[in-house]
Amino acid sequence: QEQLVESGGDSVQAGGSLTLSCAASGFTSRRNVMAWFRQGPAKEREGVASIDYSLIPYYADSVKGRFTISQDNAKNTLHLQMNSLKPEDTAMYYCAARRDPHFGALLSPGAYNYWGQGTQVTVSS
């Protein structure tokens, strides 16, 4: 059974850095399109970054230049390096995987089939 488990969430000061990780297990395909989403209090879930079937990364404008998504296929792990964190980055962060291949940006929650439980990131000013 496919499973995604996030880790690395924490409370940090504005300007700080965090690295989130997502461990994937139970997937039978050689590679999956994956992404990070976040959902703040009373907000809709929004796409933060995705990595397509060619391993090309894409970012939401709000995090471009500050966040880096990477995928380690050998370890079945997805990472999100977050630098220059801002209070508005505070949210629950979710890892997601898609069953079918896709080329290009894909930051719509409905495009993903599998989800982790989330890890909390809190940025204080």
How would you describe this structure to a colleague?
With 125 residues, this protein is mainly beta. Helix content is 0%, strand content 48%. The strands form 2 sheets. Strands 2, 4, 5, 6, 9, 10 and 11 form a 7-stranded mixed beta sheet that branches. It is globular. The termini are far apart.
Question: How big a fraction of the residues is strand?
Answer: over 45%
| Low-confidence segments | none
Distance between the termini: 41 Å
* Arithmetic mean pLDDT: 96
Radius of gyration: 13 Å
Count, helices:
0
**Secondary-structure element pattern, one letter each:** EEEEEEEEEEE
> What characterizes the major β-sheet?
7 strands, mixed
Features of the shown structure:
11 strands; 0% helix; 4-stranded antiparallel beta sheet; mainly beta; 125 residues
At a glance:
The chain is an all-beta fold and 125 residues long. The protein has no helices and 11 strands.
Itemize the secondary structure elements and their pairings:
Elements: E1 3-7, E2 11-13, E3 18-25, E4 33-39, E5 46-51, E6 57-59, E7 67-72, E8 77-82, E9 91-98, E10 114-115, E11 119-124
Parallel strand pairs: 2-11
Antiparallel strand pairs: 1-3, 3-8, 4-5, 4-9, 5-6, 7-8, 9-10, 9-11
